[in-house]
Amino acid sequence: MLVAASLTALPQTAVTVFEITPGVTLLGAGGAGLARSDTPEALYYNAAGLAGSGGISFSSFYSSHLGLANYSAFALTFRSAGVAILLLGSGDIDGYDNSGASTGTLSYRNTGFVFGFGASPDTMSFLPQLPIDYAIGARLKAVTARLGEGNGSGFAFDLGAQIGLADMSFAGLTIGDIGFGLVLGNLFGTMNYDATQEAFLMEFRMGATALFMDAVRATLDMNLSGSINVGLSYEPVPTLELRLGVISQGPTSITAGIGVNVEGVLIDYAYASHPLGGSHRVSLTLDFSALDVASLTNSLRRILP
Fold it and tell me: Measured over all CA atoms, what is the biggest interatomic distance in the chain, rounded to whole angstroms?
């Protein structure tokens, strides 16, 4: 199990692929996303954020995880819902016993499946109207695992909520897009291996976000286990976003990222430090609600020789 532990140690030792901080956009800003509803990556953090999805989007990302494994995902989100598959695999690794003798090779594989759903009074008329904006969501996670000759599978269930407050202004400083998020993670579910059964660790997480002067976004996530995620993002122009963050969970991780949006085609990059070696991630997202093929073609003609 040491092999599995080292493979999934960003930013903590993981039981499954779901314990790795997901995505690229939000990872660059410290992996803080519980209160965010303006990104398709809400599927990975708080399903309530899917209620604010503007339309259909497809996204994928890839990372050479700590130089030890390949980590990738594919996701499709649409109005109020989303599905994703996450893939983690190490390939063949040489194994040794306590005496140093070779025990052959083994491989580690994790495949995770996610289905999330978010709703608000704007999308579901049967939900009561309240003085504040709010959304609720649920997420079902399933996973299969293989370590050497051993196999396992399991599932878990999350509940989430978000609330939004009206914009504020103090001494000329505009604060907008104020939101708070709450997730009750792994409320039930187990991981079953060939000879053992393990329960997923229940989680209680809270988050907040705010946009200052329509350009700088601050985010904060907290887990009752003691971990904290802090992130900043700066959007100097509508097509570019710069990100920086800290993940205080196990070994502290410094993250950074950049995102470019060209007519609905989003390209993102994120880096996260770790004592075992940093990880680089890249992603491609197609936002079909904002995709303008004609404008994109003209932009490429101006860029390409």
Answer: 69
